[in-house]
Specification:
Blueprint (H helix, E strand, L loop, with lengths): L1 H29 L5 H24 L3 H12 L7 H5 L2 E4 L2 E4 L39 E4 L2 E4 L16 E5 L8 E8 L2 E5 L5 E6 L4 E5 L6 E5 L4 E4 L5 E5 L3 E8 L1 H7 L10 E4 L2 H16 L5 H18 L16 H13 L7 H7 L4 H12 L3 H19 L4 H7 L5 H12 L3 H7 L1
Antiparallel strand pairs: 1-2, 3-4, 5-6, 6-13, 7-12, 8-11, 8-13, 9-10, 9-12, 11-14
Helix pairs in contact: 1-2, 2-3, 5-7, 6-7, 9-10, 11-14, 12-13
Length: 434
Amino acid sequence: MLAHYAFTGAHLVMIVGVILVAAGITDAIHHFDGHAHRWWLGCGTAVFLLGHAAYRGLLGSGRLTDRLVGAVCAVPLGATVSIAGRLGMTLVGASWRPSPPSTTAWCHQGRAPPGRPWKGLTPRRTHPLVVNCSTNGVVLRGGRTVRELGLVDTVGILRRPGVRPRYSSAGLGWEHLYVSSQQEQSYRATFAPAPTHLLILHLSGPVTVRRGQGSTARSRTIPAGGLFLQPAGRELSVELGGGLDTVHAYLTDQALREANEGQPVELSEQLGVTDPLAEQLMIALDGVVRRWEPSARTYVDHLTGMLAAQLARRHASRPAGPSPARSGLSDRQLAAVRDLMRERLADPLPITDLAAAASLSSSQFTRQFRASTGQSPHQYLLGLRLEQACRLLRTGSAPIGQVAIECGFSHQEHLTRVMRARLDTTPAVVRREG
């Protein structure tokens, strides 16, 4: 339903733009020497282009859709928001102003950007697939309140003036993971201990990195694909010898514990190591943020658990003990999980909620669910969403984009991509053959 309203709104904006342009042309004909027609033509053109951009975004990848709809529905007046930051703008009072890259995710840190005071207001409406943005880093999801991991939980590298962020996971409601992609310039600094574990993937290079001070300092030239690991709770002294593109992933200690059967994990510092699995997991997480996919919450939790397990297995100062063998879920547990999936088919569904339905930890649940179904929770949920989408396409007349959103897909293209990969068909064909 929201997608239908979004399309209608885009059309109305374009119509208003055409009316304003027509008024400008009419004014120019009757009052050629005046200046009012310039204002009408300029405003009309701007309004039409805004509507057209929104319409193209709705038909395209959906990234613009999520941003514009989220900005319209979930932005309190006077607040600086991550969605606005991703567009390079700041909403101050009733006007948009350019914002520096460093303000990208300030909305979710519980404070205003430096030098930009604003009144904290909690929005009451939000796009169903965009997690509600609030001014204190707390988001609502599935009827419960959680604290989103954000910039304030990082070690401080991202707040340096030379860092130019591209996008981040601020606004997606991830409480155990924060992902950011950026360009970094050379620097030398010492950072206070942070509550999260930091894994940096170098997307370009080689570049020389030096960590530590005095006799304990180490230096290495890191190529593209190299990893830098900084455990939580430790001071970081680092010198970057040149500019490069990076992806940062910040993990909570709870995520590591859950990946290690609830046992604590002590990670070791790493400088330029190669870990193909961790690299691919980082690239996959970066892709979710880049495409802005709030509905991929179960998939993200699965990736987060795999990344945490890989760090505990490969990069712990003391190797993690072997995991005990586990059987699958009981019939009652599996039924409870299936009911929850069907009940919240259209919502982002984190692994923690599914695990709670089965009274298990996230790592235990993921392993036992796979043992029972032969699929990961994300794959199984995707199958249920696809099944419901096919049912609605065959029996209803709602627009395909609306069906996609009602079944938990980010947008129409997302549904088409999954349907083509799994069923070798498209929503249009399913509807036509209904």
